[in-house]
Amino acid sequence: MKIVRIVALITGGLVAGSMFGIWRGYNPSALSAAASVEQQQQAIRGLNVLLPILGAVTILLTMAIAAHARQKRLALFTFVVAALLFTVSGIVTRVHNQPINSIVMHWDARTPPPEWPGMRETWWHWHLIRTFTGVTGFFLLASGVVIWPASDGAGKEHHP
């Protein structure tokens, strides 16, 4: 179970950290249309497949951790809520952000369509929501892993 917890922390940290980094470093509102479109297209090329895979792994591993912690109600609750928050981030990404990503990938950055500011704002709105749920999910996952160490299966706790 320790390896599951470690991998969940790594994948969850990568996903939440990527969302946080995009929020802090890539706000497109001050960019020109061309720079905004180019920036988004580059991010889509690099992250559009990788982050959903990491997110899915994080959800599955967090659910496994929750199942393993089922004897401790607060631990179970913490890990289930973390998994649900990661799932909300994934759903927001799939239903709201990725459809916009698909459209943006077909734009010529030199001449984006007139609706690009509205689509940019809609994408950003949903990104903020998934960032909140993803970072909060990671906070709960990391807190739970620290507060409730992995059990050896016999009910004894392993402490670092």
- State the secondary-structure class: mainly alpha
Low-pLDDT stretches are 152-160
| Number of E-type strands | 0
Question: In percent, how much strand structure appears in the residues?
Answer: under 5%
**Annotation field: number of helices:** 5
User: In angstroms, what is the radius of gyration?
Assistant: 18 Å
User: How does the overall form come out from the CA principal axes?
Assistant: elongated
Number of domains: 1
Distance between the termini: 14 Å
**Helicity, as a percent range:** over 70%
Average pLDDT over all residues: 92
Main sheet summary: none
**Helix and strand run:** HHHHH
Search tags:
5 helices; mainly alpha; disordered C terminus
Structure description:
- It is a single chain.
- This protein has five helices and no strands.
- Helix 1 (2-25) packs across helix 3 and helix 1 runs antiparallel to helix 5 (116-147).
- The chain is elongated, with a radius of gyration of 18 Å.
- 76% of the residues lie in helices and 0% in strands.
- The two termini are 14 Å apart.
- The protein has one domain.
- It is an all-alpha fold and 160 residues long.
- It has helices spanning 2-25, 33-47, 50-68, 73-104, 116-147.
- Mean pLDDT is 92; it is low at 152-160.
